[in-house]
Amino acid sequence: MAMKILSVCVSQLALLFLLLNLANGQGLKLGFYNKICPQAEQIIQKTIARYVLRAPTLAAPLLRMHFHDCFVRGCDASLLLNSTKGNTAEKDHPSNLSLRGFYIFDAVKEAVEKVCPGVVSCADIVALAARDAVSLIHGPTWDVPTGRRDGRVSKISDILSNSPSPFMNITQLKQMFSAKGLDSKDLAVLSGGHTIGNSHCTGFSYRIYSFTGKGDTDPALDSKYIPKLKAKCKPGDTTTLVEMDPGSFRTFDTHYYSLIQKRRGLFVSDSALLNDPVTNAYITTAVASPATFFKDFAASMVKMGKVGVLTGNAGEIRKVCYKIN
Ligand code: HEM
Ligand SMILES: *[C@@H]1O[C@H](CO)[C@@H](O)[C@H](O)[C@H]1NC(C)=O
Ligand SMILES: *[C@@H]1O[C@H](CO)[C@@H](O)[C@H](O)[C@H]1NC(C)=O
Ligand SMILES: CC(=O)N[C@H]1CO[C@H](CO)[C@@H](O)[C@@H]1O
Fold first, then answer.
1. Topology given in CATH for the domain delimited by 24-162
2. Torsion of CA 78, 82, 88, 92, to 10 degrees
3. pTM score > 0.70 for this model?
């Protein structure tokens, strides 16, 4: 009898551990491919370097891709799946406007498949590519726990409730992040990704032309910055790209945080970091110590890379990244 109770307890404990592990991405480990495809990380790094060294602006979409993948259905490469007859995929949501560089994953996957067919997941490729892209433009580098498996589902309808929008205030942003197990510090740190890359005017033009619908401007923006933004974006412009961190949009640094301090964050969601004690204090920390930001960014990226991952026998290893097997 005692034995029986004990074994029930043990199996329930095992189940509990399993659930906890799924939630924390504990099925991942460093060097998952060391034995089954020892060249994997090097092939990925080389291929990413080939693209990013030729066109450094590609580092930004590669970083952003990992964020968008992880927030919708976990880091399972669902973002890379094409729409099919009867299903519109995440990729085809209007918010994908600036998601570019999907072809890079096709090239990376092809290079990896040649050496180790059917072994390396697209989800791991997305996570490793983000790391490699950031370090190639002089950002931090970090070890990426691997062993993610690829999802088989990608739905446009999952985007709205899972993706933070540039129009969100601090309360909404904190909610979106905490729904993924990420805290206020992670929010402040990962927003630092906006130190590189571009935005379309549509992400912020209401702040300079009609903030409350009355031809007014956002009081949270430095009034001296508004004419500069107006010069770049005419009303209704949906195509022009603006550097999010003007002057250093190709360099991974802490200049993004200096901009926010000057009330020149481009999105409402950037400015919003001033409105919470934790995120506000982090801006000061990052500006004072780039080394601290680099270390924190690495840690938060690893944490984000564990969100909702599929491991073990879940999902599959796709043969090509844009469609399920
Ligand atoms: C906090 C919530 C976030 C919001 C609301 C947000 C929103 C946006 C928006 C609206 C754009 C411009 C898209 C366009 O119009 O072309 C953008 C670009 C970008 N985001 Fe975020 N983002 C967030 C978090 C992140 C995170 C966590 C990362 C990565 C760690 C990231 C990395 C990037 C990068 C690198 C770009 C530039 C992409 C390019 O140049 O192609 N963002 N983001
Ligand atoms: C699917 O996506 C890839 C990019 O990842 C693209 O090259 C391809 O043309 C797309 N369409 C189809 C029908 O495969
Ligand atoms: C944030 O936005 C939500 C939704 O519009 C609103 O209900 C809430 O009051 C806002 N919070 C802050 C702190 O502005
Ligand atoms: C890169 C990419 O997949 N872009 C797609 C984004 O969504 C629109 C539709 O809203 C498609 O036309 C694009 O091809």
1. Peroxidase; domain 1 (1.10.520)
2. 90
3. yes
